[in-house]
Amino acid sequence: MADVSIICGSASDAAIADKAKKILDEHKITWDYQVISAHRDPDKLDAYIKNCPSGIYIAIAGLSAALPGVIASKTDKPVIGVPVSGTLNGLDALLSIVQMPKGVPVACVGVDNGDNAAHLAIRILKLAKN
Amino acid sequence: MADVSIICGSASDAAIADKAKKILDEHKITWDYQVISAHRDPDKLDAYIKNCPSGIYIAIAGLSAALPGVIASKTDKPVIGVPVSGTLNGLDALLSIVQMPKGVPVACVGVDNGDNAAHLAIRILKLAKN
Amino acid sequence: MADVSIICGSASDAAIADKAKKILDEHKITWDYQVISAHRDPDKLDAYIKNCPSGIYIAIAGLSAALPGVIASKTDKPVIGVPVSGTLNGLDALLSIVQMPKGVPVACVGVDNGDNAAHLAIRILKLAKN
Amino acid sequence: MADVSIICGSASDAAIADKAKKILDEHKITWDYQVISAHRDPDKLDAYIKNCPSGIYIAIAGLSAALPGVIASKTDKPVIGVPVSGTLNGLDALLSIVQMPKGVPVACVGVDNGDNAAHLAIRILKLAKN
Amino acid sequence: MADVSIICGSASDAAIADKAKKILDEHKITWDYQVISAHRDPDKLDAYIKNCPSGIYIAIAGLSAALPGVIASKTDKPVIGVPVSGTLNGLDALLSIVQMPKGVPVACVGVDNGDNAAHLAIRILKLAKN
Amino acid sequence: MADVSIICGSASDAAIADKAKKILDEHKITWDYQVISAHRDPDKLDAYIKNCPSGIYIAIAGLSAALPGVIASKTDKPVIGVPVSGTLNGLDALLSIVQMPKGVPVACVGVDNGDNAAHLAIRILKLAKN
Amino acid sequence: MADVSIICGSASDAAIADKAKKILDEHKITWDYQVISAHRDPDKLDAYIKNCPSGIYIAIAGLSAALPGVIASKTDKPVIGVPVSGTLNGLDALLSIVQMPKGVPVACVGVDNGDNAAHLAIRILKLAKN
Amino acid sequence: MADVSIICGSASDAAIADKAKKILDEHKITWDYQVISAHRDPDKLDAYIKNCPSGIYIAIAGLSAALPGVIASKTDKPVIGVPVSGTLNGLDALLSIVQMPKGVPVACVGVDNGDNAAHLAIRILKLAKN
Q1: What is the complex's ipTM, to 2 decimals?
Q2: Which UniProt keywords are given for this protein, alphabetically ordered (chains A, B, C, D, E, F, G, H) (predicted)?
Q3: Partners of residue A89 in chain D, C-beta under 8 Å
Q4: Which chain A residues contact residue B99 at CB under 8 A?
Q5: What span, in angstroms and rounded, lies between the C-alpha atoms of E124 and H79?
Q6: How close does chain H come to D100, measured CA to CA in Å?
Q7: Which domains does chain D have, with CATH numbers?
């Protein structure tokens, strides 16, 4: 049972996830790490979300980064999205993550900024503990 | 039983869908029209896809336009995506639709170009009939 | 004593704030509303933050939208940023809000999307109540 | 007689074509490969299109990527366009390929995403075989 | 027999062509005006180019503006391209026109700037007359 | 007591500051150099500004570059901002620095252009000496 | 003999100049107003600069906004540039004004932000008076 | 006495000029090569233009690329502009060159595309010789 679920859309995003893990470890926040593509493993993602005990998601994805939004559509827990840079410098992932329709919010942080995803999760958890 | 399924992510995209319907009607292609948000109605979307007899999808969405990609992840039929313009001129929806990860293709047409979604569907159906 | 502090950088952003207030009201979340420019009223902003009992901030700003980041630098509570569109379609405010340096996170939502700022705040507060 | 015609606008796009060939080979789809510039070899392109037995085109081009659109204007078969990245990160080719006028559709996939061009062709051919 | 051929890709570009005609008239330069889509009327365009007595082309087009490039690929006369603005503010047409491959040059002027297309044609014709 | 205060938002911006120092040295303009993050050290920044004897600030920052604007909001001396490039090529820092609200001006120079920040400071100081 | 010279590149930029004049008037700063295009009236611009008694220039221009840079290349006084929005939302003018080569600095303010040009001029003049 | 004047705004643009020289040499077109900054050497540029016997200019520049426009404002010969890429991928130079005001045309070619500048000059000279 972890405080935070970190999910990457692709194994190639692991370096961004590592930044988040390091910050969470320093603050003694536990995490569970998964690589699940919203587009290629939708059933696995559904199953994970249904049984997930964590209070917060950090979803890391590049390109057409649907992962954070799909998670947000299937849970009412806070979802933090991290856009990953690529050929278009991460602008594609940034817009895909931040421009969510009304009612399905994602908390977007900066391009490749796994650190701030963790820092934001820590602020949210701290509020919950007070 | 329709040839083409037209799905809008929001009722506000109806004008773009109308362009596609008109072209399909002119070519005597039958269609089924739905408004289902990938983000707000994921279960309804899943159910529709499982029972959908159409051979092709036209998915129309703005903002973080996950609809075409989510459909493409749950069917192996061709999916045509139409980005809808908004505050960012449709650049957000265009990048969200076209920049799909490997293995989950979406056939993206131009911003607000419901006509070409229909014309592309017609070309695909014509190939199937030959 | 309110659950959420909504701060606009300019009185002209009030329409975006109204969207957030409406959603919060529907969920019986209390809010305090302020118009304080990070650039023009830095001392007033400091004073407000020091005495603010709310658990979460929603900061709404256009142009070089420093407001969410400045608040995040002076509190360890979660800060949600809403970019407001203008001549550059909100791309300036979006990048100003989301591209924060490591250690000072802001949870950015979509351009002009006051609704999702409220929905995100509700998810965070719900986590805190569990 | 091949199932798919793969045409590059320049020999320098061969690496993107290779990605498509590999996927098609894995699915036992036959292909014919050509390097024909729409701008430098218009007559050769015309001649190829007139005699082409393939059911689908994959057209790969960078810069002002007219190739997919020119092919689509001379055939009524489905044309899949792949934008190739360069100094402007492929944004030029992406917009050139996707923003086609009404009546001349191109199915655009992601920047440098030769894989998805093949996957889309496979979906279209599968529909044709059912 | 006209000095300059003005070709629009769509009848909706006529207002931009009118700006060019007015400047040419003021300088007593004769012009021939056509509306021919590179994508929808490729054969008509070919026939026109083969018999065109004008020394210079002004090609006006929006979206994926292939017209100037296609003309430049079929003549060795100077071709001036004018990008026309639309949903993406003309950025699509601008990049489509200016980013031509080596060996097929187009002289691009500003977005919607039919005036400067005429002024540029006048400079070129003046050089020819000296 | 220096003529110009050079402040970097991060130690990683030092190379841009070095360009400015070199030009100022060549013109025998004295400078004081500090690394103070507007987001991470707001109190240190406040204290520095209150006691700063320099007539001009050069503020160098990347990402969501709030530093120049925050300084401009706490002094009525001229503030020159230098955007630093990163994953988004400096477009984020450029828009964050230049799009200031009315009444809080920042003099923005080009991306990574520490030289011109110094040259601009020299012009301003020369005016003051006349 | 005015404190500040305000020069517009086109009469159509007058509304932006009016914002600057109003602020300068409120601060009892005198100004001289001219409409001189860097591209269409280069000799008039040269003559004006040679005889200009003002200490600071405010140069306002849209499109390929060469005016501020050309002035900066012919004087060693501070030049403030104001980009004016148009079809491309002012991004063209912003980049033209801010991205100056080393040694020829322009102090760029925000798009259409005539107010901040005046406020910046006031800060510079105040420094000169101390 | 050369057919074409090639002017670079900076010695660092020489590689782009070399591409143009090579093409011109192959077509036995003579050229004169200069490095003159519009911003740093305005008087040298003026003097060169006044005495220039060439019929066409090729002006190569990066950043805020005023060079082609300034030349076009001081001659009525055709001026071809080549944007040079840098931190912003050449988008700054492209917009600075192509978005000229009415009456002062520049013939813009693609980013870093010295080849096409030469090819365009050859087309213009060929017209002049017929």
Answers
A1: 0.97
A2: Isomerase, Lyase, Purine biosynthesis
A3: 89
A4: 63-64, 88, 92-93, 96
A5: 9
A6: 21
A7: 4-129 (3.40.50.1970)
